[in-house]
Amino acid sequence: MTAAGFTLQPAWLAGAASLSLFGLLLVVGAPGGKRWPRLSDDALIAIGAAVLLAAFAGREPLPNDNDALYADVIRAVRQGGHFIALQVNGVPFLDKPPLFFWLGAAATAMFGESALVLRLPAMVAGVLGVVLVARMARRFTDSRAAGFLAASLLLSAPTYFEYARRVYMEVPVAVAGLYACDLGLRERWKRAGLWAGLAFLLKSVVGLLGVASLVLALLLRRRLPRGVFVAAGVALAVSVPWHVLAYLHDPAAFLDFTLRLHFVDQIANAQPWSTGGPLFYLSAIASHDSLLGVMMLVGLLVAARSFRSERPLHLLVIVIAVVMQILLYSLSATKKPFYVLTAYPFAAILGSWAVHRLLGSEPRRIKLGFGLVAAAFVATCGPLLYPDVDACESTYLRPLAERAEMLTPPGRPIFGLDVYLAAPQFYSKRPVIYAVHDERVQRMLSRIPYLRYAKNVVTWRDELLAGGNLAIAPVSLARALVARVPGAEIIARNEGFWLVKGPS
Q1: What is the CA radius of gyration of the chain?
Q2: pTM for the full predicted model
Q3: pLDDT tens for each residue of 278-293
Q4: Residue ranges of domains in the chain
Q5: What integer pLDDT is reported at residue 33 of this predicted model?
Q6: Type and span of the H or E element at 235
């Protein structure tokens, strides 16, 4: 929705809608209110979350970002059977563990390849995450209202809502890590180990942060039950086999990228395009997810006061999870706002617990507290208007990529001039050679493994159009290319990008 050069962002709309929806459920479901016939609280929350996510998840196309790149890896798993050595158009893909891509391949095998289906793993995880935080908050406080509030806090966080409808593993790993921690709190250690191992297969060490918070809390209480070691054994049994097979398939690549990229570079050597100061993540939470940030701060203050008289294990774990994750991400050299998303479910539970602690369980107070939270959300969002910026270049790139597929003989690549290769490569169903200027080549190769291994980054040069090759380029570069290469012609235009064909 646009007006006077501004756009109403779907994430903020969904945030307001989720607060309104769960506000209605709270009025009906708070102590003293009527329960909806034949529907449990979890069912109500799941239906509400699913409706909100599905309402915004079917838009086309996939963003020209990791969404389209991950979709390409999923296609290679499904069509080529590359379950161990992940690939993208024949190129080794060493950036991430495989579980998210296996889930995507299963979804597309059952329901067909579409933007909505590719988003299903994240969407399902997003719904389960909202239900899980509601259930945990309800158990910790013995209050149905606290469960509804925790659910609304999490789903109304724009970052959570955004990545619960994208082809990213951030929400699935956050939910798997939270569930592993919850199982550990209930001393179901074998299942906790299983989910910790699955979380590790979703996004490496990030998946273990929830369980690490529980272990640290137990150590602080000088109590480490035998079940912790059972869980560790199960987690290793689940996660180690793929790593061993990946190493045996290509030892040099595994050591150079799978280990170095995740365990060294990500921590000590920042990606050139993802840097920030020591307060980067606190600033990101304050600016992107203001309401959740405020409630998280309130929760920490109330918890600190509560710790003077009692330190229940579940509260200690939640506080440690929030503080430890923000601290660890802040110490890491690479900075991306969505990285800290794994702390958001814990923050939602903490905020809900704090409201319950401050207001008690009397129904009117709970409803008043929810009203204040909803008012705070509106206040922090202002008029919900933000500059009209098109965040989905694929709207223009997809038609050009599909046209290029029709015009390019099988086996021949397409060139992309200073255009991130994800969408052109996915929608053209063939490799895209990424042509960049000299000063960018080494920087790109050093931090993006699939580019280095494919050798599909070349220095920008006129010869790339030799033999009638096709190139997708921003308008300015396309004009320069046509002016410098005799016989080159523009065969398709779409907003800011042109498709250029070289002389045969």
Answers
A1: 24
A2: 0.88
A3: 899 998 898 888 888 9
A4: 10-58+119-383, 394-501
A5: 47
A6: helix 226-249
